[in-house]
Specification:
4-stranded parallel β-sheet, binds D-glutamic acid, about 280 residues, 12 helices, 6-stranded parallel β-sheet
Length: about 280
Amino acid sequence: MKLSYDWRDPSLAIGAIDSGLGGLSVLSEMRKALPHEDFIFAGDCGKAPWGDRSDFWIQQRCQQIIQFLESRRIKALVIACNTATAAAVDLLRSTLPFPIIGIEPAIKPAAKLTRDGVIGVLATTRTTSSPRIKSLVDRFAKGEKIILMACPGLMDQVEAGDFHSSLTRGLIRSFIDPLLAQGADTLVLGCTHYPFLADEIQGIAGKSVTIIDPSPAVARFLKLRLESEGILASRPAAGKEEFWCTGDPSRPSRVLKRLWGPNAHMHSLDSAWPDLLRIPGE
Ligand code: DGL
């Protein structure tokens, strides 16, 4: 698709999308790796979760949100969502000119780190049933036992800012106990919401279990890609972040302040870009 601007301008921002606030875990790694870049984060909090929706719905929704990001002029896009990467990254790459970086469950590093050859993957229903995850397992973990665990409800606890309640701990337990019972010594966080629950997951799994979050690797890869395209920001000043969400911004705004800091401000996407009120298939 032809853009109305030249995306090869190093001073432009990098867009990042997720179904909700989970992508902030990726954004925080990108901020560390790329201190001079500007980021525009868009979370579809009003329509989250995406994890049980169809590929077609997710593709349409990503395209709507990306149109907003294009209106703000971006030079690259990070799909800070495993579910959307599995459902839409191929389509988006075939239609958009700028670099698109996705995130996938870290099966390959897990296969290297596991001692006993048993790996649990915590992810959404859409990710655990996707052909992309099957292909990751076939390519990188043929000799290991990979247990894919769909965790419906877990992202909602993060969206609600409910990181440490007994309800959240109970849910985590219900998903990881069966993995531990089968001997998993490595757990892959295959949804960008789950790093915000990493302390609780580690506490329940115990110190001997290795937990892997692919976000730092995504941030490193993004940096390499910007360098190779010649579009790394060259300004000496610190970069800025802008945060947008669909739906009522009051709760996401409170959770954002807890996750990012008291000065972070959440903007309403529905008011700025009414196209997002049009829901795919409705
Ligand atoms: N944060 C998302 C992921 O990485 C999606 C969670 C959801 O919307 O179900 O998969």
